[in-house]
Amino acid sequence: MAPSQRLSVFCVVALGCFAYACLAKEHDHADMYKEPAKGEGHCLKEDADGKCLEEPEEVPRLDGIAVGFYRTLAIEAEETHFMKTLSMAPLILEIDDFLTSKECDHLIKMAKDQGLEDTINSAATSPKERIHVSDFNSDGQLDTNEMRISLEDNFDVYLCEEDVLNVYKELRMDTNGDNLISKAELDEVTLSNFRDFVLHYVNEHPVCQPRRSKEAKIAINGTKDGVFAKIEQRILRALRLRNAAVETDSELLVMKFEQEGHENAHIDSAPILERLPCCHKTDSEVCRDCRYATVQLHLSNVEEGGEAAFPVANNDTYSPKDLRLGNKRNLRKFCEESNLRVTPKKGKAVIWYNHFPSGDTGEVGEIDDRTWNGQCAVTKGEKWLAKLWININTYVEPEPEPEEDDVEETEEDPKPE
What we know:
alpha+beta, Jelly Rolls, 2 domains, five-stranded antiparallel sheet, 24 strands, 25% strand, disordered N terminus
């Protein structure tokens, strides 16, 4: 059998170093949560002599003040909203009754009219010439936890130890029965057999999928839907992002979660990579997400389960390696271990920033790697959810605030009983 047909070339040193190189980049963003560092600045427009005529502004970001802090928003005539800080690291904000019941029903109807489709795990179905394995301790063999993470990285599937042992049994991989897979044992399995069985196993056990839901991606660029346009403006005004350089993503994602429906933890945006342009700034398919903020709109109540989960919110310290090894990304199985869980409620908005500002460059800065988020499994009933992402082009002077856009800030809960 040709080497290219084997499951993997088991290079312990290279793979071990590769795994730790990816995991060991742990950031301490404490300073950024307090005061973003100023950049050198850029010029948007120069005169003939090279003098700067127009400079970008720092990308706006609300100050959460402290966990439990309430901000009173008067962003619409005769309508008051209360914004609560749920987390400072990352900054997560909650607004009850942000949408009316009719607005929620309207977005659901838009999704139904377009048609909902089962979520597709593209990572699992894409062709692979080889599979990279994660031998964290470089001992030349994979324990069940290392194999679990290898499967997550290659196929975006989420197995527990029992599932991994079933894979070993069905493929007859563990020839000596020690629950460890050596290089020799791994080389006896072909890539195609391994991939096909993993996909078959996940199809038979859909709870192992990274997300189990139905969804509709609704094109919203240039939409003439008056209800959505009103919601969009409400979002931008709540975040004080009312400028031509700010835009929402081209699609509104509406999701329906039925029994056991879930979404495992992930980060909504991507780190800064100079060689890759932001997807909203290019027509190229080779790009990266640059989603400054995420707006999650809860469109229904849920009988049981279905909380929005943030596994590492408000952590004093954060280790990407520990998050992976501890399996806390698997919210279908370990939802209760998340640091922050937000109960779904019809009309509620949950908002967080995926990136820090970058000072006065007018661009988004480093990604906030504590923004792991997902949805716990629905245990009774169903759940409807919409997601909208905020993109930033180079930010220029914001428009003046209208008089009715006053904001009152208080540490006390201002909501009437």
